[in-house]
Request: fold
Amino acid sequence: MAGLAVPTWDPQTALLIGAILFEAIVLYVGYGGLERLVGPRLMELLVGGDSGVGQ
Reply:
């Protein structure tokens, strides 16, 4: 039966995929935190005081 064979994994390939996923998670969390920290102040600076961001 074709298509039922389980593919074998190369350990280096699995390590590379794991490293890429870990990097993506770190960047997602890091940029999310940075946006929460700097975002409101930056928007107030760019848009102006009447934007309602700081309220």
